[in-house]
Each structure stands twice: as C-alpha cells, then as structure tokens.
Amino acid sequence: MPRYQVGSTKGNTRYPEGSQIPSTDDVRKNKPGSRYYTAFGVDLSPDNMAVAIVYFVQGVLGLARLAVSFYLKDDLHLDPAETAVVSGFSSLPWLIKPLYGFISDSIPLFGYRRRSYLFLSGLLGALSWTLMATVVSSKYTAASSILLGSLSVAFSDVVVDSMVVERARGESQSTSGSLQSLCWGSSAFGGIVSAYFSGSLVDTYGVRFVFGVTAFLPLMTSAVAVLVNEHRIPSGECSILLSGSGFVESSKQHVRQLWTSVKQPNIFLPTLFIFLWQATPQSDSAMFFFITNKLGFTPEFLGRVKLVTSIASLLGVGIYNYFLKEIPLRKIFLVTTIIGSALGMTQVLLVTGLNRQFGISDEWFSIGDSLIITVLGQASFMPVLVLAAKLCPPGMEATLFATLMSISNAGSVTGGLVGAGLTRVFGVTRDTFGNLPLLIVVCNLSSLLPLPLLGLLPEESGDTDNGETKHN
Questions:
Q1: Which keywords appear in this protein's UniProt record, sorted alphabetically (predicted)?
Q2: Cα–Cα distance between 119 and 115 in angstroms, integer?
Q3: 57, 15 in Cβ contact below 8 A?
Q4: Which helix (H) or strand (E) holds 344?
Q5: Per-residue pLDDT at 23
Q6: For a disulfide at 365, which of 229, 237, 268, 355, Cβ 3.0-4.6 Å?
C-alpha cells in the first residue's frame, strides 16, 4: 500500500499486499510419500490452508480501504489530522490482542479454542461492513464500525497466529521464515485480487456499494473454521476449565507466565526496539489529501497504484524468503531503515513538482516511488514476525505472540498519532500544503532515531538454532 494512504504502517503491519508468486517456490508436490503439496516450503495441510485463507481474507479486505479513505475525506469532510486520529482509533483492537489470545487459549467456546472463534470473527466482520454500507453517517459511527471490523480481523489474526507459532516454535529462523512467508504471501495475494477493483468500484458505484461487497468477504473466515484440525473438548472438561476457582487460577498462571516471559532481557529488549522503530511519525494522511485534492488522483488511478504495490509487497515477501531470512536482524534493520528514509525523501519531489522538471509525470512518479518503498518495507518487517513467533513458550502461544505484536502495533498507532499532531502543527489541512515538504522531511529523518539502539536486537544469524529464544 502506498505510504500516503490512510491506515498504512511501516512494513504494512495490518494489510500487507502482494505480487506474483516467486517461481522458485511455486506450489508443487512435496517430497515422495507426502500427501500434500507445498508452497514457500510449507505443507499445504488443511490446518495450514485454513491459516493461509484467513490471511488471504485479511489481504482481500483491502477492497474497502480506498473507500474508507474517500468516505472520511469527501462524505464526512474530515481534515488530514482528524482522518489520522480516526484511523488510529479504529486500530485500537490491535493493541489488546493479548486479551484475545488469553480468551482463545483459556476459554473453549462450544468445545473449541480455535474453530469457534474463527467462525464468530467472520460474522463480526460481516456485521461491521454491513453497518458501513447502510446506517453509518457520522465520524463517530464510522469510527465505531471500522473499529468493529478491526476487532474481527484482530481476533481471527490471533487465532491463526497461535496455530502458526505452534509450528514455528523450536524451528530455525529459516524454517519459521518459510511459514511466515506463506502467511503473508497469502495476504499479499489477497491484496492483488482486490487491488485494482478497490478504486474502480468506488469510481463507478460509490463507497456504500464497496462496503456492501466487502461485507461478504469475512464470511470466508467463518467457512474455513471447519478445516482446523482440533479435537473437541468434552463439555465436562470445559465446565472444569470455566469453573470459578479453576478459571481464576488458570488466569493467574497465564498472567504470571506472560510476565515471566516478557521481562526476560532477550524478549523485552528486542520488543522495545520494535516499538520505537514503529513509533516514528508518519505523514500518510497528509499525503493522501495532497494527491487527491491537489494532484487530482482518482480512486480508479489509486486502485492501479494499489495493484502495483500489492505486487511489490509479495515481491518483498519473496525477497525475504529467498535472500534475507538467514541474515542477522541488526543488519536487515540498519540497511532497510537507512534506505527507506532516503527514498522517503523523494516525496518532496512530488509535493514540490520537481519530478515534472525531470520529465516524470506525477502518476508514474507515484507508482515507482510506492513500488520501491513497499518492497523494502515488507522485506524489513518479515523478521519482526519471525522474531515474535520464536519467543513463545508452549501452552500460551496465542497470548505471548499477541502481546508482542500488540506492542508493535501500539508503536505504529503512536507513530500515526504523532504524525497527526505534526500535521496540525505544520498547518497542513485539506487545502493547505505549504509546509507539507517540511513535514515529510521531519517524518523521514525521525525514522533514523531508533538506529543507535540496534544493539537491543540479537547478533545471531538465522542459520543458527541453539534454543527456542536464542534468535530473539
């Protein structure tokens, strides 16, 4: 997704989108004797297929992202700072993912810890987009409905992530990276499927129609719940788990185990770095208003840009999977952050119109700029997922992984809100862009601030594996 679109985050933490699947790892028959095909080096068992499809749904839900951006700007007449705040508010469900992880791990619903929650998450998502298509008419109801949709995606994300880390725990960073690549590659493919139509449908039929179509997509999550290989917990055992003293004791044990894990230096310090890395300010909302109000980019054209960046995102997944997953984390973060900050400055050329003096149109410049940054951002964020997955001890996979990713998401939301504050300080509004170049420069230079803290990350390369948390 282009950096200047509402709701984007470093590394596309919420909605990564994709490209052509790398031919080296096309779906193929596994080694002799295997019953399954493989993709990205991972067996496509029913469990893994369910995980991949849920991630695919996360990507294809990008169909409504442009519609939301235009709805907030044109129908509700919000300014860039207000839009950034609404976007930050709607991301709040991603900050309490540990709660969903605890619920999923500790409270079986209808005898299942995974299936039932996937099913209900899909229904919740369908409800949220149905409300957007029908009754929503103010920034408060819009923020609430978008928040409900975020809750749906966040809860299903926790459930499938717990399934992922169960498989990744104890594996090398390389093997874990292959599984994460399958997940995010599926999400990226979903982004490709929906990318172009996200703009053309807004142009042709309007935002309400797009919200209505989007309401059907989360039902795929409900449908694939049956693929999850999970034994039903007998009702008697469920009653014991949920009984007063037993449930309280289980809750206390989970909290103690979570705190014991998080406070370990080899977990806390890398997590602190990831938070600071994500918390630097962003100018996405201001740029979205500039390219639509000043440059006149249409939803249909932005849909094309989204298609290109969807392809770029999956390309970033492929680059990580084949070239970077055995490189030390410090080196990946150092190089990608410096290059990303330098390339981010190219937005100044677009804002000032200097690109046209070099004979490059605004449209082509935007496409090329977004493509390069998206590849870089996705490749740099993949190690964060591998790092988090390998930190999780047995028995609380969903809870700890959700905690670590919530901290990362909190950093991203913080960056968005700081960016909203800077947007107001610099006087950038829906029609005033005089200080936008300065805002871009400040936001990009600030991304370099966490680099002196690279020592908080582990030194090991991904090819060594001397323990479950060594790479973390």
A1: Membrane, Transmembrane, Transmembrane helix, Transport
A2: 6
A3: no
A4: helix 329-344
A5: 35
A6: 355
d(CA 324, CA 316): 10
Sheet of strand 42-43, all strands in order from the earlier edge strand to the far edge: 28-29, 37-39, 42-43
Q: How many CB atoms lie within 10 A of CB 210?
A: 30
Is the pLDDT at 468 greater than 50, yes or no? Answer: no
Give the C-alpha separation, 47 to 340, whole Å: 36
The length of the chain is 472
Exposure of 435 in the CB half-sphere (CA atoms within 13 A): 11
Q: pLDDT by residue (tens digit) across 382-418?
A: 777 777 766 666 655 656 777 787 888 899 999 999 9
Q: Are 464 and 470 in contact (CB under 8 A)?
A: yes
Helix (H, G, I), strand (E, B) or coil at 29: strand
- Estimate the share of the chain in helix, then strand, then coil, as percent rounded to the nearest 5: 70, 0, 25
Identify whether the C-beta of residue 280 lies closer than 8 Å to the C-beta of residue 443: yes
Which residue type sits at 14?
A: R
CA-to-CA distance for 6 and 14, rounded, in angstroms?
Answer: 12
Q: Residue 416 CA to chain centroid, in angstroms?
A: 14
Calculate mean pLDDT across residues 43-53.
77
Residue 204, C-beta contacts closer than 8 angstroms, at least 6 positions apart: none
pTM of the model: 0.77
Residue 375 CB contacts under 8 Å (≥ 6 apart), including other chains: 312, 313, 315, 316, 319
Phi (first) and psi of residue 29, to 5 degrees:
-70, 140
Distances in whole angstroms, Cα of residue 263 to Cα of each of 228, 249, 277, 330: 33, 21, 19, 21
Amino acid identity, position 10: K
Q: How confident is the model over 118-132, as pLDDT tens digits?
A: 999 999 999 999 999
| Helix or strand (DSSP H, E) at 85 | helix 80-90
Residue 342's identity, in one-letter code, is A
pLDDT bracket for residue 94 (50, 70, 90): confident
- Report residue 309 as tokens: 């960046």
Question: What are 113's two structure tokens?
Answer: 């810890």
| Separation CA 16–CA 106 (nearest Å) | 30
* Tens of pLDDT, residues 274-326: 899 889 998 989 999 999 999 999 999 999 998 888 888 878 878 887 888 77
For all residues of the chain together, what is the average pLDDT?
Answer: 79
- Interaxial angle between packed helices 436-446 and 397-425, expressed in degrees from 0 to 180 and rounded to the nearest 10: 150
